[in-house]
Amino acid sequence: MGAERSRQAELAERLAATRSRIGAACAAAGRDPAEVTLIAVTKTYPASDVLALAGLGLTDFGENRDQEAGPKAAAVADGLAGTGGQPVSWHFIGQLQSNKAHSVARYARFVHSVDRIRLVRHLGAAALAVPGLGAFGPALTCLVQVSLDGDPDRGGAPASRVRDVAEAIEAEPGLALGGLMAVAPAGADPGHAFAALRPLSAEIRSVNPAAGIISAGMSGDLEAAIASGATHLRIGTALLGNRSVPVR
Ligand SMILES: *Cc1c(COP(=O)(O)O)cnc(C)c1O
What we know:
248 residues, alpha/beta, TIM Barrel, eight-stranded parallel beta sheet, 44% helix, 16% strand, binds pyridoxal-5'-phosphate
């Protein structure tokens, strides 16, 4: 119990520090912090940490590997049911193979890493196949991941393909077009790379004006992302600590 209580205290402290960074960055950019959604990226960390952060008021959680995320989402749902806690929303943020689309659609509300039309088709079919989803409109909100460095190994569509992927999402009845996602290129100035986000977001909003999500900003570059209009931050290390196993 003592170890659990001190982990809870550590998470509370890290959350407060992260919120104060977000507040300062919003003040510097003349933005309202209420416009910015904090997604806790819990990869490599246990369901107990998700439950602790949910107890501290977080509602949005991100994972990048289906094999880890599926069981964790189930454990968290059980834990929340046991304590009467509000359900949380899962964001899938990692590179996704088409054959995992059905699995991801069972627990994720958002997929940030949609970068090709073949994957859109699989996610569209998966969203319609999940029992109970889709009854009140699209089940799964998809973001177009754009590559800011042109490196195909890191995922993301080239900027020239963003509109085609957005239109394919928009055409799927089971999917909602949410907006844009990007990861800053390694070793480059994130502020410079993130300058591409606003024009790309405008292009996606020309497909659907409601698709205003800009998912950008991690532990090391959240200030630059907020200055460039990010609406959703994906924060792992700053909230949970350094991961012992490196996970891309
Ligand atoms: C791991 C990961 C993050 C979080 O990174 P931190 O530097 O730990 O904040 C954000 N986005 C993606 C796509 C990730 O894989």
